[in-house]
Design a protein that fits this description.
Blueprint: E1 7-8, H1 19-31, H2 41-60, E2 68-71, H3 74-84, E3 95-99, H4 104-115, E4 119-123, H5 133-138, E5 144-148, H6 162-172, E6 177-181, H7 185-188, H8 193-196, E7 200-204, E8 215-219, H9 234-237, H10 245-260, H11 262-283, E9 286-288, E10 299-304, H12 309-318, E11 321-322, H13 338-342, E12 353-357, H14 366-381
Parallel strand pairs: 1-11, 3-4, 3-5, 5-6, 6-7
Antiparallel strand pairs: 2-8, 7-8, 9-10, 10-12
The chain binds pyridoxal-5'-phosphate.
Length: 382
Amino acid sequence: MKNSDYLYLDHAATTPMREVALKAFIEAENEGYANSSGGHNLSRKAKNILEESREQIANVFGAAPNEIIFTSGGTEADNWIIKSLFIKGISPNSNLVTTNIEHEAVLASAEWIKLNDYKVTFAECLDNGIVDAEKFLSEIDESTIVASVMLANNETGIVQPVHNLIKKTLEKNNETLFHSDVVQAVVSKKIDFHKIGIQSAAISAHKIGGPKGVGAMFLNNKFKLPSLFHGGKQELERRAGTVNVAGVASFAAALKEQQENFDLEINIIKKEKEIFETIIKDNFNVKVIGEEEERLAHISNIQFENINSEVLMVDLDLNGLGVSRGSACASGAQKPSHVLEAMGIGKDNINNHLRFSFGWSTDSGDGKKAANIVLNSLENLS
Ligand SMILES: Cc1ncc(COP(=O)(O)O)c(C=O)c1O
C-alpha cells in the first residue's frame, strides 16, 4: 500500500505491495500454512496453492509450469544460473560471456567464477548504453557454457537487443545456456521467454507489487542445473528449502493484477514520465540518459548539470520526494554508477545523476508534482 503524503518515485528499487498481493499472502498463510512437501491434507492444500500459482506465473511468460522454480528473488536466480555450471570437472577452458552493465547479482557472480580460474568476459556497451553486439559475439566460442545479457537495464531502462544476441550466440555455439535478467523488464514489457529465445531468466516479485524475498528462475526444460542449495528435494529437486507458499501466492496475485491492468498502468506511467521529463528539460540544463533509445516506460535517469546528485537526493527527500541514484545496492555506497561509467560518462558528470522510477502506484499528476519539487530544489541548490 502506498503512503500518500510522500511521493515515491523509486519503484525500480522496490514497489509498495498491491492490496491483492497482501490479501493473497494472508489467505495462503491461513489456508496453506502446512509444509507443501508433507503428506497430509493440509500439506496438499499448500501444495495446491503452490502449483496453481506456478501455473499462473508460467502462463504469463509463455512457459511450462515445470520451467518455473521459485527462489528468494532475482539475486538468487542470477547467482544460480551464472555459477552453477562452473563446477569441478568441467573443461578448464569453459567460459562465461556477459556485459559490463549487468546488475551486481550477475557481475559479482561472474567475479566469483573468475576467482575460480575460469575465463569471464564483460563485453562493453556502446556510449548509447546498448551492448556492443559485435564485441559480445566475438567472445562466444565452443567453450562458452553461459552467456548472460539483461533484457533491460535497471539504472537507465535501456532495452538490450537480447533476441538478436541469443540467435547469433546459438549460431556460434548451440550448447551455450543464454541467461537474461528480466527483473526490471517485467515491470513494463510483456515477455514470452520461448518467443524471445531466453533459456533462463531471473524474475523478482517485489518490482511489480509483490512481496520482497520472493522470485523465480525460468529454466528451459532442455537444461538441467545442479541445485545451488543443498538439503531437501523441493522444487523437483532443483532448489532445496521449504517453499514460501504464501510469498509465491502473493507473487502470483500481484502478477495477475499487473497483467490484467497492464495497458492502463503503463499508459499512466508513460504519460507521467513524459510530463516529468518535459518540465525538467524545459527548465533546467539536463540530459535524459538513453532518450534516443528504446527505454522501459518506468525509468528516467537524468543528468543535472553542475548538481551533485547526493545533495539533490537529500533535498528532494526533505521535500517529500523519494528517488535514488541508481541501483539500490550502489546507492548509499557513494560509488559512481558502473552503468554510466560504461556509457563513457566522465568524472565531471558521473555524480550528477538521479533515477526517477514510476510504477503501479503512480497516479495522474505525480509527474508534474515531482517535477515541481525537483525544480524547487534545483533553484535552492544552484
Ligand atoms: C536488474 C535487476 N536484477 C536483479 C535484481 C535483484 O533482485 P532481488 O532484489 O529480487 O534479489 C534487481 C533489483 O534491484 C534488479 O533491478
